[in-house]
Design a protein that fits this description.
The complex is a heterodimer. Chain A is an alpha/beta fold. Chain A is built from 13 helices and eleven strands. The longest helix of chain A is centred in the first third of the chain and has 15 residues. Classes of the chains: A alpha/beta, B mainly beta.
Chain lengths: ~375, ~120
């Protein structure tokens, strides 16, 4: 069945990031609300004009209700979809349908986390299943390690190629004032870093930061009277093939293959049309898997694609231009950060602005490579 | 058969020294973990005795802070097709290789049965 999607009928009209890095003494809700208010202000709207809320917080499974109360709104629709880091791409798909149908007029999508200041560990209610927990995998890290080991076995991908992803992210972060992790990082530094769950070492892992992000969406025709240039949503698709990594039909291929193909079909675009790419890089293997699964290179070629600075500044494809989850920030669910960076690139206001961006892609991943969701933004 | 759902039945069988799998009654397709019906079709499922044979599909060695020792977590692909997470006893964690043939064993840990594998 071909997807029916209101291509370009809705747009991002406000964006914000807030509290990236360390925000001691702030709750996750305070950070999310801070980002939300900034995004509404950026959109040139009054808070009371927001009539739909979409949120996912690490520590409140019913965050939609809490968000409504906190902001003092009585939304017509509230969504707590929590497919991990991909939740926000799904929020956008839902919001686009509802906006286009006239069911809602203004959607606010938000995320916030105080996981660094609040405990220094990944804050999530997700955990290994009862069939996996007795073997003591690190959750979620070892699942990614098992996928990486399999990718290396099948395609000859190397630890040096994984390190290329981390080094590229750091190079983008070094010229992004908002990025948390800056400074020199070499392939050798990555290879020498402590092994956590082979083949994943410390430098293959994303940051553990506080931070919040928010976007405002409305119909594109209405957006034309607002202060910011609208960033139309051209396609949005989510796909789920498993929850436990052991259930992957092929551990080197994720459902990003499906979410990407569907989002591209909705947008009427090909990977070659995309000017800048934001991928959910919880671990370095993610970037390689998603470049392949989304069609930027053939399956098994991801390691070679990123080699020699392929996705670093000056490379052949700009990927994770903020520094990504590896070096900009990772507040536990990075998906909305990827969306904001993609929107900024289309607006022309990113810290590491790529010239003449027409189309940008943001891809989120949740669980243990379980939920995959892709959005394509760009000019009509 | 023991009372309760498929998960309880599977655990009870394991406690009794048997490693069971399910398959679709019509398709014959084996699956794991246990479910109330065949995934994908919703058709009736039936139990059968697993061969216990498999190969290592992937492996990772987890290096905790000393003095805790490194240990491996593996994905085993069973001869019947399904994959599951487990561990391989009787071999150094870093010596476990993808493609290595293994055989299931039911061990006891903290008074509970646990499915583990050993090199063949």
């Amino acid at each position: 069945m071909a997807d029916r999607f209101p291509r370009g009928n809705t747009a991002i009209v406000g964006v914000a990031t807030h509290g990236i890095g360390e925000m001691p003494g702030f709750s996750s809700m305070e950070l999310a609300a801070g980002a939300g208010l900034q995004a509404v202000a950026d959109a040139g709207l009054a808070l009371a004009q927001v009539d739909a809320l979409f949120i996912c917080l690490p520590d409140d499974l019913f965050a939609g209700m809490a968000f409504a109360e906190y902001l003092g709104l009585q939304p017509r629709f509230t969504d707590n979809n929590r497919t991990g880091g991909s939740a926000f791409m799904s929020h956008m798909a839902t919001a686009a349908m509802m906006l286009d149908a006239g069911y809602i007029d203004t959607a606010l999508i938000a995320h916030g986390s105080n996981q660094r200041s609040g405990g220094g560990r990944l804050s999530t209610p997700a955990k290994s299943s009862a069939y996996e927990a007795p073997y003591r995998p690190l959750f979620p890290l070892s699942s990614y390690a098992l996928a990486a080991a399999r990718h290396m076995h099948q395609f000859g991908t190397t630890r040096e190629q994984l390190a290329e992803v981390a080094v590229a992210a750091r190079q983008w972060a070094n010229s992004n004032p908002e990025a948390f992790a800056k400074g020199p990082l070499s392939i050798e530094d990555c290879l020498a870093s402590r092994m956590v769950s082979s083949p994943i070492s410390v430098r293959d892992c994303c940051l553990m930061t506080d931070g919040a992000a928010a976007i405002v969406m409305t119909r594109t025709d209405r957006a034309r009277s607002l202060p910011q240039p609208p960033v139309p949503l051209l396609g949005a698709a989510a796909a789920t093939w498993w929850t436990s990594i052991s259930q992957a039909p092929d551990m080197t291929e994720t459902s990003a293959r499906e979410s990407g193909a569907r989002a591209f079909a909705m947008a009427g675009l090909q990977p070659a049309d995309i000017d800048v790419v934001q991928l959910y890089d919880a671990f370095t293997i993610n970037t390689i898997l998603f470049l392949e699964d989304l069609g930027f290179c053939p399956k098994g070629e991801g390691g070679r694609f990123v080699s020699g600075g392929g996705i670093a500044p000056g490379g052949h494809l700009p990927v994770n231009t903020s520094g990504g989850g590896l070096s900009c920030c990772h507040p536990g669910m990075y998906g909305l950060m990827a969306i904001v960076e993609a929107a900024r690139q289309v607006r022309g206001t990113a810290a590491n602005q790529i010239p003449a961006v027409q189309f940008a892609l943001a891809h989120g991943s949740g669980g243990t490579l379980s939920s995959q969701a892709t959005v394509i933004l760009g000019n009509l | 058969m023991i009372e309760g759902g498929p998960e309880a039945q599977w655990r009870a069988a394991l406690a009794g020294g048997r490693f069971l799998l399910q398959r679709g009654r019509a398709s014959g397709r084996a699956f794991f973990p246990p479910r109330i019906a065949e995934p994908g079709t919703g058709d009736d499922a039936e139990w059968f005795e697993a061969s216990g044979r498999g190969i290592v599909y992937s492996t990772t060695v987890i290096g905790p802070k000393p003095p805790a020792l490194p240990y491996a977590v593996v994905i085993v692909e069973l001869a019947e097709g399904p994959r599951l997470m487990s561990r391989i006893d009787g071999i150094a964690p870093e010596s476990i290789a993808i493609g290595m043939p293994v055989k299931a064993r039911i061990a006891t840990e903290a008074d509970s049965p646990i499915l583990v594998f050993e090199p063949v």
